[in-house]
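Hey all, sorry for the wall of text incoming. These are the two entities for the joint prediction.
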Amino acid sequence: MLTFMASDSEEEVCDERASLMSAESPPPRCCQEDRQGLEDGEGADQWRGQDSEDDFDEDPDHYVCGGVPGQPSGLEEELTLKYGAKHVIMLFVPVTLCMIVVVATIKSVRFYTEKNGQLPYGAGREQSVQPAVSLSIYTPFTEDTPSVGQRLLNSVLNTLIMISVIVAMTIFLVVLYKYRCYKFIHGWLIMSSLMLLFLFTYIYLGEVLKTYNVAMDYPTLFLTVWNFGAVGMVCIHWKGPLVLQQAYLIMISALMALVFIKYLPEWSAWVILGAISVYDLVAVLCPKGPLRMLVETAQERNEPIFPALIYSSAMVWTVGMAKLDPSSQGALQLPYDPEMEEDSYDSFGEPSYPEVFEPPLPGYPGDDLEEEEERGVKLGLGDFIFYSVLVGKAAATGSGDWNTTLACFVAILIGLCLTLLLLAVFKKALPALPISITFGLIFYFSTDNLVRPFMDTLASHQLYI
Amino acid sequence: MSPLCFVKTFLHGAEVMQLHLVTLIQDRTKRICNAFFWLVSLLFSSLFWFMARTITDNKDGPIQKYLLILGVLVSVLVQEMFRFAYYKLLKKANEGLRSINPDETAPSMRLLAYVSGLGFGIMSGVFSFVNTLSDSLGPGTVGIHGDSPQFFLNSAFMTLVIILLHVFWGIIFFDGCEKKKWSALLVVLLTHLLVSALTFISPHYGINLVSTYIIVVLMGIWAFFVAGGSCRSLKLCLLCQDKDFLLFNQRSR
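and here's what came out:
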């Protein structure tokens, strides 16, 4: 579940984790059981049918009904798996992009791998001190200790503090949501995205310009950052082209991940990653977990939650538009055409329910079937952030070995695949972090310690396996 | 040297990209699975080598070289084992899908073989090459200690050929498994061992590269015929007279 500690000041840290909500495969309109509240700003990763692009409308989530007449149960599983595969791919691209941005920055901009006291540029010092001070509130135990045991103990203590802060903020959020303090939550979200979009972007841009020794005057900088930030606020919190919204969400996740990578001490970061996946598992699956309660409350009220904190990869499909008529007609008559092209794949959602849907009349755009159904996957931004933190840390620490980074990247993607598969099977809220982070951690440590020396020796002797 | 090296890298990168474009989108998931399998096989072989090295207490000398050679051979074996394991997994998944919906045509095994080979190849190529590539950016002189100055060129060419070989091996391997022709599997394993063994004679790059390229051409021809090609279809394709291919392209647009 996505728990966010939206920070309205520099002192707070934006922490988000995500979970996957149940998958609703193609909606048979006749079966509208269990409308499930979709947006869980908490990282619902779900497939849903949504009636409009307006974030606050109700999202009728439909379950695939096994009892629909004339539908073999194998069909629904097939649909589920097919949708599963498609959604996996729809999530690969943004997750990969976020990781690429983070790794590229880490490898090129020295700022994000330097520890706090070692900044080469005096000008950057005042910018970096404040976030450093604020984050060190969460990780007060230093890792500059003489013994390994002491360092380990300190990192565990740091983790405990961090996790308890996260738990406290989550519970606070759930309480706010339960008592319908929507304005407070929205204000909080807006302040945190303001900070990300303006302050962190400004710092990032400053460091990138310094690295490449490009001069930029303040008016240009102001104009650039202002435009970037303002458009971002509009896209994320209000309306905007989907692609732009996705791009902004990816960028703010990358910025947040970079902040974590810079300011979390090394060992603490790894322990925190592990602990947060355990917490995610507990919070989403336990009956009294805060995130589960949040989801259930949202479901009861049939409300979307905090759309600003979920990445949505929705495909927009419109019934009733002339261009799609033949294919949707085709879909009605031939429920299974695996050779269907990408376009008409979306209209797949109306399989063999002719009794439910009237065939769209060609060239009649005004009819009531002209809806926009978004069938997409949603993944919380916390997932993006923690995946990128893992890969970024793999790129930053140790030998700067690319093999380790790649191994972690593949491991995380495989974890994501598996999680989406489980989502398709279980059809309920699932945490997105545990499997990926576990794989990522295993592969990081094993690749760094076992594979790297092997590959280095092979490469130096020019041996190929 | 370095601009040339970049040209080579881009060439083989372009080849990989083209292969990507040709392959369907849905196979991206499968390719990642493949990459994962290769990674796990690499992990096991590194573990073996690491343990062997620890057992011999990291002594320098010829024993390290022998251990390395042993490590390479074990790694090749483990890779082929994982290829087989992946084949089994795919077969099971296909059967599962077919049992769910018998009318649905499963993706052809040849396509899966190709994707599998590509996944293995990409991962193998990337792992072999990316560190060398990043080092080539940095300041330095190739061969300053008396090693061959063609280090980067050789790496680039070898990586290219390994990727192609993995693709062809994948096709031949899967076909052998499908038709229960175990000799094909053995040949794949032996050629893999041969190619790796040929690299032991570096820095005599000439023999190494030439023989590896001969092997790649042979494997390519074999894979082509195994995948159902024939001289006739090749001619039609080259002369752009292959109606099925042209129609297929039009349809998919």
